Amino acid sequence: MGSIAKRSRLRRTIFFSSLLFCSAFTGAHEYYARTFKIIHPWALPTAIEARNAEVYLRFEEISEDDRLVSATSSFAGSVSFVDQNGQMIDSIELRKELEIELRPGGVHLEMRNLTLPLQHERSYPLTLIFEKNGRIDTEISIGAH
Amino acid sequence: MHVPFRVRDVAKAAAAVTSLVVLVAASVSVSADDGVRIGRYVTGDFHNHTTCSDGTLSLKKLVDKSVNTFGLDWFVQAGHGGNSARNCTLAEDPFEPVPPALGLSTAAPRPPGTFPSGGQPAADVKGPNQTWESTLTGGVSRILGDVVFQGPARSMWKWQEIQEFIYPVIEQESRNRDKPIFVGLEQVVPGHEHTSTAIIDGQLPESGLGNATAMAQFEYCFDRADGDKSRGAGNQWDCSVPGSLNNGLVDPAAKKILVPGGVGSGTAGHIKTVEGIKWMAAKYPRTSYYVPAHLERAGAFNPNGNNGFNVEHLRNFNNAAPNVAFGFESMPGHQALPGTARGAYSANSVGGGTYGGMGIYAGAIGGVWDALLGEGRRWWTFASSDYHNRGGFGPDQRESTADFFPGEYTRDYVNVRSSKHGDDKKYSTQEIVDGLRSGNSYHVNGDLIDKLAFAVCKVERGEDKDGRKIEREMLKAAMRGETYSDDDCATMGESLTVKAGTEVLVSVVLRDPQGTNYSPYAFPNPSLIQPGVGIVQPLNAPVLDHVDLIGGNVTGIIDPSSPNYAGLLGSPAATNPSAALKATFNSATWKSYPEGWRSMTVRMTIGADQYVRLRGTNLPPATPFETDSKGNPLLDPASQGKIPCNDAACPAHMEVVNGIKTSSFDVAAWSDLWFYSNPVFVKVKSSNIAVK
Fold first, then answer.
1. Between the CA of residue A83 and those of A11, A108, A114, B320, B648, what are the distances in Å?
2. How many C-beta atoms lie closer than 10 Å to residue B613's C-beta?
3. DSSP letters along B128-153, please?
4. Residues near B308 by beta carbon (within 8 Å), at least 6 away in sequence
5. Judged by CB atoms within 8 Å, which residues 138-157 of B form the interface with A?
6. Chain B contacts of A143, Cβ < 8 Å?
7. CB contact, 8 Å: B227 with chain A?
8. Is residue A19 scored above 70 in pLDDT?
9. Do A30 and B395 touch (CB under 8 A)?
10. How much is the pLDDT for B20?
11. d(CA B26, CA B207)
12. Concatenated DSSP letters for B74-89?
């Protein structure tokens, strides 16, 4: 477990560092923690029969290291963290002065056992728990990529 | 289908006014000679979103909801700067919810839980979530400027969206609906968070096609999220400010100031932002406005990042251009989010959240707003919907766990003084901007009131020592929907000059409209039915409980070199210790007239320069979890999960705590309603205090 976690962390670090050079210039839908910003959590709409949904967002202006340790939503049985290889990971690290993007094909969140299909033109609650910054309540915007 | 919306059509309004004039004339002997100059309050919204930024609806559908379904008189479409991939000019396909969804069916007639839109026909089965790249003739080659992607699709910079795509749709909507509908911007602010702004130059000319090129250029030049360096492609814009000493900061290639992230970015960003305000003032002094939004949400100012606004930044904006930066959007949108996040505020916001839906800068007596007014600054309060979506509900449903449509819950009432009165009551975009700048405005949630006349008058005139003539004239003007104005009085945004020791009459006339507002809920207000209050009042038929008169002294403009110029909430810089609750009016002290008209007065002896302003609410003082014993609004997150929603009709989406439904989301918002007026200043003749 320890070695896998270390490898995952290494992969994440490499990935996140690369994002420093391709930051997007989107606008708002922002949430403010004490030491970072969460930018625009979003997901694609899901089919009626879908059980899972991927969720993406970005962390900006990280002034202290922190770690996303858990997430919940009233519209899902659970929310997991998944790396770029589709493997579940325990947490997502936020490194000072890096910009971290959770994106399709990369590290992302996954809502499992959806209680309702996620529909266009709507938003759904997502609570993120950080090691240092504690609880941040956000809304996942559907389709607004 | 009959939806019990408040009736607003002109014929019924005219009939009501006629009947009331008769009633009031009988009781107070209305004079035929009113001597008033005519103005009119019109309702609008200037901060909202479509799929051109991170909203969920097309331009057309949002306009339709705002000015048709909810009947706003004017509307500014103002999404975020930066870039986006979706083509918001495409109309929605017919709305097809995913069953079982949340209560909406497509069966005709639509069920009571829906707000049927006037409808935008499907355009070739292309909804507004499709990308620019996939829907424009010519595809990606039509997208200008530096290449940027949102996901797999190429994004378009906002300046191009505004200039080439958004404006033509908005102009056509304005022409079709015969209302001032124009393009603004919610600027992503360098060094700070967001600002609602517009430049109307070029928009909606009296004849021919207009343009929003000035608005587009501002976005390119001064929006933090606009990383394009192409100078607006063929526009070849130059963002330097005439005569500015900071033009040396302008990048020679991009022709705009580029602010790198990291250490010092907040401070450098603020400098760029002030340059933007100076640019507006230099080029568009009458046709622009700059109103920071949800000031407290992002926390205090951060010199090394992009966070909130402190009082000194508002002073800097106002000093740079008092006729452009003249107020703040202190009542944020997103009012139906859960109490822990009402207004999209969090525990990390300045003040820890909203207070009766208001940010603490204006929601607390003696705070930032009073500090600015205490300098004599003409600094006004506004409100907007910030509409993105309705949370877990669809756009045609009436419940919301996130936002309300423009005009559904929050309205800005802005005075316009048009040259086209009489039978032709049209008004121009310029008159809307002039009205915003004038300070003669107020904002209301949940249609708590729908008419307001607020004036301070000299009462030394021998013929009207008791102030009854003033009251009559104000009633008459308000009933006609017109602005009260008199040479011996000053109203919101104005200043009355009197001799020291003069007694003045503060007079308020308003209407608590009868009937229902746009709330879909008729069960008793959960906040009012709590033990200790015991008022049974339908949630969709609020009753004004009381009105507070708040005032403070004006002591003059603070110099930027003063230690009291800059500071955090609670510091001397952000405090006006003289601000206080001066009087409270309620059913025991105001005069009541038919159809909800109320009149209230108080006399004040003026010894020094000062101002007075109003707030009102449906909640009595000491309403548990809502107001304190003096009637001040309490921190909204503290009420979350505390107020039971026990009625059988309480909707299913309420938060459940210990097995009990609690007032939350839209129900909590409809329960807790406020209005705020802008101030009236009173100046003593011998005073040499300078004001902005």
1. 9, 6, 20, 49, 46
2. 25
3. TTSBHHHHSTTGGGG--SS--EETTE
4. B192, B193, B295, B296, B297, B298, B299, B300, B301, B302, B349, B350
5. 148-151
6. 56, 129
7. yes
8. no
9. no
10. 42
11. 47
12. EEEE--BSSEE-B-TT
At B423 the pLDDT is 46
Quote the pLDDT of residue B97.
Answer: 41
Hey, is the C-beta of A104 within 8 angstroms of any chain B C-beta?
yes
Q: Tell me which chain A residues have a C-beta less than 8 angstroms from the C-beta of B158.
A: 27
Distance in Å, alpha carbon of A124 to nearest chain B alpha carbon: 6
Residue A27 has pLDDT above 50, yes or no: no
Residues of chain B with pLDDT under 50: 1-37, 95-111, 118-120, 421, 423
ipTM above 0.95, yes or no: no
Distances (CA, A) of B116 to B62, B88, B400, B518: 13, 20, 15, 13
At B105-141, the pLDDT tens digits run 334 444 455 555 544 455 555 678 888 998 999 999 9
Contacts of A137 in chain B (CB under 8 A): 338, 340-341, 346
User: A137 CB near a chain B CB, below 8 Å?
Assistant: yes
B93 near B58, Cβ under 8 Å? Answer: no
CA pair distance B581, B364, nearest whole angstrom: 11
Cβ-based contacts of A25 with chain B (< 8 Å):
82-83, 148, 225-228
Tokens for A96? 């000072």
- Please identify among residues 4-33 of chain A the ones whose CB lies closer than 8 Å to any CB of chain B: 24-33
B298: contact with A, CB 8 A cutoff: yes
| Total residue count of chain B as it appears in this document | 692
Token code pair at residue B138:
């010519």
What residues have CB less than 8 Å from B2, skipping those under 6 apart?
none
The terminus-to-terminus CA distance of chain B in angstroms comes to: 52
Helix, strand, coil percentages for chain A (3-state, nearest 5) = 15, 45, 40
Query: Taking 80 as the threshold, does the pLDDT of residue A54 lie above it?
Result: yes
